[in-house]
Structure formats: structure tokens, C-alpha cells
Inverse folding.
């Protein structure tokens, strides 16, 4: 799987990266459309990307893929069986939003996670991109939780994560992955628009307490 399929902009692209690329696109398209099958696709894609990132010494992203496998199982269960306290028993999880205070807590949590992950990478690994690697990794953990609970603001988090990831993968000359995250950026903007329209159509309003 790590064999070179072709060369792009002077850098080799492996079959592993190609397969992971396709699965990741399918997964995010499913998330935008709130499709249940997106979660098992995500699990397979994360396993492949974990392998790819480890091979390129992007350790935070590699470990993150393992976390994503677990959180994808949780997200799959949440979308199938989860509900909010305001919903009747047996109702499917619906889109909700964060309050201003909750949104601030998300930003602060991202900052703390970035410092923790970046510090560990800088001190205990041979990573040459410790802090740049840690930035999207920290945001991805938060984005995954918000996505699993169908919080609209997950798409804002993913927009920021995708921008940071494009810079990271371009620096590591993983051009296909950089292209993937550029596509993800557009899909996150589409997801934000579609989820907001669905939320408004359902008469949504910000909850008085945390929806997470």
C-alpha cells in the first residue's frame, strides 16, 4: 500500500494515500448529508490515514486517527440512539447550537489541547512540525465531539482545522492530502450552510443549557 502510484509536484503519492483520500471524501459527504453510513466509512479511512501519517512522522495526526476510530463508533451510536434532554424518548438526535459562553469554552479548550499536544510532541518525539501538527489535531478532537452530538458549530471548527491541515500537509509535501483538505474546506462550508438551513427549518433556537 505504501508503494508509489504516481508523482505529484515532485513528491511521490502512495496507493495508501489514494485509498484514504477517496474514503475521506465519501465520509465527509455523508456527514454533510447526515447519513448514518458515513461513520463506518470514517472508521476505515481513519485506520488508513493513521498508517500513512505514522509513516511520515506526523505523530499527532497518526494517534488522532486512532482516537477518531473510537469517537466514530461513539458518533455512530449517537446518531442512531442519542437524543437531547428536551427530546421525547425514541426521537433521533437533532441539530443544536452552542451558546456564546459554550463557544468561548470550545475556543479555550482548543488552546489548552494545542499546548498539551504540542508540548508532548516537541519534548518526546522526533517530529519536525510539533506545534503545526498539534494545532489541527487538537481542533479535530473538539470537532469530532461536536459532530457526533450534531452541534452546528462543528463545521466552524472543521473549517479552521482544514486551513491548518492544508499548511501542515503542504509543508510535508503530502500534496494529495493537502488537496483533500482543501476540498474538505469547501465541504465544511457546505455542511455549515446545509445544517444551518435544516436547523432553521425545524424552528431551532439556542438551548438554555449545554447540548453536548
Amino acid at each position: 500500500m505504501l508503494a508509489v502510484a504516481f508523482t505529484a509536484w515532485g513528491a511521490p503519492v502512495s496507493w495508501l494515500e489514494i485509498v484514504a483520500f477517496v474514503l475521506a471524501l465519501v465520509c465527509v459527504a455523508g456527514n454533510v448529508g447526515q447519513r448514518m453510513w458515513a461513520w463506518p466509512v470514517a472508521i476505515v479511512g481513519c485506520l488508513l490515514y493513521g498508517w500513512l501519517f505514522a509513516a511520515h512522522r506526523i505523530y499527532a495526526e497518526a494517534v488522532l486517527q486512532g482516537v477518531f476510530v473510537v469517537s466514530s463508533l461513539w458518533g455512530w451510536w449517537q446518531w442512531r440512539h442519542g437524543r437531547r434532554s428536551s427530546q421525547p424518548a425514541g426521537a433521533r438526535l437533532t441539530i443544536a447550537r452552542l451558546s456564546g459562553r459554550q463557544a468561548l469554552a470550545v475556543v479555550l479548550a482548543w488552546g489548552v489541547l494545542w499546548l498539551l499536544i504540542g508540548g508532548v510532541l516537541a519534548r518526546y518525539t522526533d517530529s519536525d512540525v510539533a506545534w503545526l501538527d498539534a494545532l489541527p489535531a487538537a481542533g479535530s478532537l473538539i470537532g469530532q465531539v461536536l459532530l457526533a452530538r450534531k452541534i452546528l458549530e462543528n463545521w466552524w471548527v472543521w473549517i479552521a482545522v482544514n486551513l491548518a491541515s492544508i499548511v501542515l500537509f503542504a509543508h510535508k509535501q503530502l500534496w494529495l492530502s493537502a488537496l483533500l483538505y482543501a476540498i474538505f474546506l469547501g465541504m465544511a462550508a457546505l455542511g455549515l450552510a446545509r445544517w444551518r438551513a435544516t436547523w432553521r427549518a425545524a424552528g431551532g433556537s439556542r438551548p438554555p443549557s449545554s447540548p453536548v
Notes: The first strand starts at residue 4 and ends at 8. The radius of gyration is 17 Å.
